[in-house]
Amino acid sequence: MLTLQVINADPEGVIAKLAKKHFDAKAPVTRILELDVQRRTTQTERDGQAAQLNKLAAQIGGLMKQGKKDEAEAIKAQVAAIKESNKACDDKLKDIEESYAESRVLRNLMSLLGPFKITPATALKIYQNFGPACVDILKKCPYDLCQISGFGFKRVDGIVRKTDNRLHSAERIKGAVLYTLEDARSKSGHLFLPSEDLVKETLLLLNAPISIPEQRVRAEEVQETLRQMILHGAVVAYKQYLYSPRVFGQEDDTARMIAERLVNISVAENIESALESVRESLGITLSQKQEQAVRTAFQHGLTIITGSPGTGKTTVLKAIIEVFKNLHPKGKFALMAPTGRASRRMAESTGVDEARTLHSA
Q1: Is the dihedral of CA 132, 16, 144, 248 positive or negative?
Q2: Sign of the CA dihedral 195, 200, 203, 204?
Q3: Of 42, 49, 43, nearest to 80 (Cα)?
Q4: Cα(284)–Cα(327) distance, integer angstroms
Q5: Whether the model pTM is above 0.85
Q6: Could you give the CA distance from residue 152 to residue 331 in angstroms, rounded to a whole number?
Q7: Where would you tag: which of 48, 70, 209, 298 has the fewest CB atoms within 10 A of its CB?
């Protein structure tokens, strides 16, 4: 067993031994040694304070017996200061203990995931996603790793099947289902998949490495696993559409916020004078639809403007910004986009100094 005593005795030997298991232990071992030095230093300081408090308590008792209350009170002030420092040491020891516990979990996590050759940064990412119970969670179902960026189903499945070749296990099917939903979201922008499509895509993923037809996973097995996942909240079903719980929650929150904006009727502003001024200052000619889009933005709490590339959406956005500035010289507005690249392009095309990503706004 890899204990603190073993690490302290031969840290380089521990690092070399774990390296043979594809586990880069240099960073976590160094961190553990640093924490141990901090712990011992703080504990020594804490013990010294305790001894000093005992000594001062004895002095106070002696002075009180001699009737020297003023001198005793002066020493009591020293005691209060030491107790405050004592409390700070206790807090520091608690922080060190929590940091050590986290380092121990990360060390165990990296050891468990040695075949994946993960870095300490990736281990921390996994820890932040699953929490302190991450080792137990992944021991029970390593396919949960598919939820982490960089751990595709094929990579996880290829390694897991070297030690556990249960091709029809519920854990394997569940991992493929969740990965298929996330893959559809990240690559194609789909927030959900119809049940039939999800089963079809999941089967393709599960059976890709299985060359013998008789050993392949059947549609009925995926459908039964899906039923259990829906029952236990691992997948959300709305009519025939299936979502991951996180994405369904995000869509639901978005729908609620849109509904609130639609319910709260905005007071329409008269923008004709400002719009004419903007047309002249920008030297642009707006089409009928573009003018309608600008007016609509000032009549409703939510406006969606769509169009193919080159149809004038950026021109409409610039007009909306300039009309707003004309109407509200001291007013504030924000430009936001889904990605950093899109926000930069938005800032460049509109001439506004700053645009931010949605998640940072």
Answers
A1: positive
A2: negative
A3: 49
A4: 19
A5: no
A6: 47
A7: 70
